[in-house]
Design brief:
Elements lengths: L1 H18 L2 H24 L6 H11 L7 H15 L13 H12 L1 H5 L28 H6 L6 H6 L11 H13 L5 H20 L8 H6 L3 H8 L10 H21 L6 H25 L1
Helix pairs in contact: 1-2, 1-3, 1-9, 2-3, 2-4, 3-4, 3-5, 4-5, 5-14, 9-12, 10-13, 13-14
């Protein structure tokens, strides 16, 4: 858990640089609310609060729009910890990724705030280091993923660096890649899930793009724009909600990549990574089960 937090630190710092010090307050409030929620459960069980709650809280906060009201973020992380993890019995027993469970909850409850109110990155060499937040009248209507779907253009450099609109931690593909490689190389995250997710996405997206399907962008822009990079490395590889057998991990990752492409192209949502991971979480236990059955027949 500490290694994941180390890997997320550059993304948290970048959220302040791109969107102002309000991002740091958002992260602090979400972590405090997440800690308090888990503490309310474990105190009666006479167990300590796990460090995993800070991973959940940071991942949840980094998935939010910069201008989201604080109370919505707090409500979301309370739901993430309480209904995404603690109702299943606590750490190690949850079926779905807790951070994405909380995000899906506020995504449904507050759709306008989660899909239509995005802040552009603050301009200038100092960016958000000398500002609290983007001006309210600077709110835009779409993320790079949605703009690319509708014919907009972003350079690969902009998508790599991250000085564009988007979630707090999802704008810089380069920082997400750097942090992701760190947790993979330290064996904190399983490489099979990441590799198969990227391969699944590239194959499906290439078929749709080369086939001329409306809304299908080229796979390189698709991977770098939006949430796919951070989703593949940090959310999909959650060791609790992901499969436990290596064969199932390959299947699980490929499913996430393929479904992420399909949902993004054919739905009204700007990105399908969140829903594809939650769907994959649902089938992770039975995939492990069938892999075990196949091994037993040999």
């Amino acid at each position: 858990m500490k290694r994941v937090l180390y890997a997320l630190t550059p993304l948290m710092a970048a959220s302040v640089y791109f969107f102002g010090w309000r991002s740091l307050i958002m992260l602090a409030l979400v972590n405090a609310a997440g800690f308090a929620t888990e503490y309310a459960f474990v105190r009666s069980w006479k167990e300590p609060v796990t460090s995993a709650v800070f991973v959940t809280s940071c991942l949840f906060a980094l998935s939010l729009p910069p201008a989201l009201p604080f109370w919505m973020a707090v409500l979301g992380v309370i739901f993430a910890v309480a209904f995404g993890k603690m109702v299943f019995g606590g750490f190690g027993r949850n079926v779905f990724n807790p951070a994405l469970t909380g995000r899906a909850f506020i995504y449904v409850c507050f759709g306008d705030y989660m899909t239509g109110r995005w802040s552009p990155a603050l301009p200038g060499p100092w960016g958000g280091l000398v500002r609290y937040a983007p001006a309210p009248d600077a709110i835009t209507g779409a993320t790079p993923g949605m703009l690319l779907k509708t014919g907009g253009e972003f350079s690969l450099w902009e998508l790599l660096v991250g000085n564009i609109s988007g979630t707090l931690g999802g704008t810089s593909a380069l920082l997400a890649l750097a942090g992701g490689l760190y947790i993979v190389l330290t064996k904190t995250a399983n490489y099979r899930i990441v590799v198969s997710a990227v391969a699944g996405y590239v194959c499906m997206q290439s078929l749709l793009w080369l086939g001329g399907v409306k809304g299908a962008i080229d796979p390189l822009h698709g991977i770098l724009a939006g949430s796919f990079m951070i989703g593949a490395f940090f959310y999909a590889t959650d060791p609790v909600s992901a499969p436990k057998t290596n064969e199932a991990r390959w299947i699980y990752g490929a499913f996430i990549g393929i479904m992420s492409s399909l949902i993004t192209v054919f739905s009204a949502w700007p990105a399908g990574t969140m829903f594809s991971i939650l769907l994959a979480n649902m089938f992770a236990p039975i995939t492990d089960h069938f892999v075990g059955m196949a091994r037993a027949r040999k």
